[in-house]
Amino acid sequence: MQELAGKKEIIKQLRDRILSMEGFSTGKDSQQLDFGLGKMDAAFPGGTFPIAAIHEFVSHTEACAAASNGFLAGLLATLMKKGGFCLWISTERKLFPPALKFFGIEPEQLIFIDVRRQKDALWVMEQGVKCNALTAVVAELRDISFADSRRLQLAIEASRVTGFLHRLHPRFENTLTCVSRWRIRPLASRENDGLPGVGFSCVEVELEKIRNGRPGIWQFEWRNGSFNQVAAQRAVVSKSGEAKRKQSYA
């Protein structure tokens, strides 16, 4: 029995080492953070949202961009729950900063940098992810090359900062070194116990790609300061604006 337990520990250590070599954080910090994603955690290697890595978000419409920023804010709130700072870079910032308070992010935790050119945004992000005094770096841009994403990943492996690339209206979707690719779409809010008015913010989360994980689609509401999974099948808006159906995986 003791020999079997020893073999399991060796396998676990090897698995953690391989994940670490592939850009995943397997330390205590990643295991202690609960992003409130529930059953979605099973899609991630190690059963927890990958920190100290780069995640790619793709938005083809303004509505999807707003939904993505909301979902990002929920993730950032968990990352910075115990303090820390986030650098938010963009060329055409449309985010309404006071709204981040709704997600539990204090104004002094965010530093906004607005630049005019895409290459300037990439340069600022590269400098930001090298700074281990930051908890996370978000860059809103259109296109990025594989070589640029590789430089960002190498910098993050040294600093252990978590990076988010939010690609708005990309001209093409090329392969990057990011550990994941996400698509966030807005959903109509549900009625709250039959009461009139606007319900809680609701989004469809598609994890299109996750290295060593299992892609899928889930639906979440942001309620009482945390994500709450919605199991029912809902109508969403496609790129062309027409309603379509997607299956949610519990």
Q: How many strand units?
A: 11
Rg, Å, rounded: 18 Å
Termini distance? 35 Å
The assigned structural class equals alpha/beta
Poorly predicted tracts of residues: 233-250
Strand order of the largest sheet: 3-2-4-5-1-6-7-8-9
Quote the average pLDDT.
82
SSE run: HHEHEEHEHEEEEEEE
- The helix content, as a percent range, equals 25-40%
| Annotation field: number of helices | 5
* Largest pleated sheet: 9 strands, mixed
Secondary structure layout plus pairing:
Elements: H1 2-21, H2 28-32, E1 54-59, H3 62-79, E2 86-90, E3 110-114, H4 118-129, E4 136-141, H5 146-159, E5 162-168, E6 180-187, E7 201-210, E8 216-223, E9 226-230, E10 235-237, E11 243-245
Parallel strand pairs: 1-5, 1-6, 2-3, 2-4, 4-5
Antiparallel strand pairs: 6-7, 7-8, 8-9, 10-11
Helix pairs in contact: 4-5
Describe the structure.
This protein has 250 residues and is an alpha/beta fold. The protein is 28% helix and 26% strand. It is built from 5 helices and 11 strands; from the N terminus they run ααβαββαβαβββββββ. The protein has helices at 2-21, 28-32, 62-79, 118-129, 146-159; strands spanning 54-59, 86-90, 110-114, 136-141, 162-168, 180-187, 201-210, 216-223, 226-230, 235-237, 243-245. The strands form 2 sheets. The chain has a 9-stranded mixed β-sheet, sandwiched between helices. α4 (118-129) runs parallel beside α5 (146-159). The longest helix has 20 residues, at 2-21. The radius of gyration is 18 Å and the shape is globular. The protein starts with a helix and ends in a 5-residue tail after the last strand. Residues 233-250 have low confidence and may be disordered.
